[in-house]
Amino acid sequence: MKIIESKSLLFGTILYCIITANAHAQGGTTTVTQDQKFEQLLAEKRKINSSITINDRYKIQIFNGDSETSKKTLTDFRRDYKSLDGTIVFSTPTYKVWVGNFKSRIEAERNLSELKKKYPNALLIKPNK
Predict the structure, then answer these.
(1) Which is nearest to 102 in space by CA: 55, 41, 66?
(2) DSSP-derived secondary structure letter, 116
(3) Which of 41, 59, 75, 119 has its Cα between 20 and 30 A from that of 31?
(4) Distances from the Cα of 109 to the Cαs of 12, 37, 101, 120, 127, in angstroms?
(5) pLDDT tens digits for 67-116?
(6) Which residues are paired to 87 by β-bridges?
(7) Which DSSP string do the residues of 26-76 spell out, in sequence order?
(8) The pTM is what?
(9) pLDDT in the model for residue 62
(10) In whole angstroms, what is the distance from residue 96 CA to residue 29 CA?
(11) Is 70 exceeded by the pLDDT of residue 1?
(12) Mind listing the domains of the chain with CATH numbers?
C-alpha cells in the first residue's frame, strides 16, 4: 500500500509541477480613456480653489448685498476687467464680491482707486485666515 501511495504522491507532484510551469499570469496593457469634459471640470475646480484661498494677500470688495445682484456684479466685473480674478463669498446674510489677489497694500490701493470709478463703494480688505 505504501508503494502505491508513494507513486501516486510522486505522480501528483510531477503533474502539479508540469501544470504550474505552463501557467502564466495575465499580461498586457491597460488603457484608460476619460471624457474630455472631466479634464475641463478639474481645471475649473483648480481655478476656483486657487481664487477662494484666503491668505496674507489683499483683496478689494466691490459689492455687498443679495445673491442675484452679486452674480450680476461679478459678471459685469469679469467682462470689464479680464486681468483680475473675482469670486463671490457668502457671509451670513449677505454675499460679497471680492476681486484681485494683491501681494502688497500699495498694489491693492492702486487698483482700488481705479475700481472706485465704476464701483464707488469698493473697499480694500485683508481677509483673515
Answers:
(1) 55
(2) T
(3) 41
(4) 87, 39, 12, 14, 15
(5) 999 999 999 999 999 889 999 998 888 999 999 989 899 999 999 999 99
(6) 98
(7) ----------HHHHHHHHHHHHHHHHH---S-EEEEEEEE-HHHHHHHHHH
(8) 0.57
(9) 95
(10) 51
(11) no
(12) 56-125 (3.30.70.1070)
Distance of alpha carbon 19 from alpha carbon 100, whole angstroms:
69
The vertex-120 CA angle with 113 and 115, nearest 5°, equals 35
452679486: which residue's cell? 70
Rounded CA separation 16/32 (Å): 37
- Residue 15, C-alpha cell as written in the block: 503533474
User: CA 100, 104, 107, 108: dihedral to nearest 10 degrees?
Assistant: 50
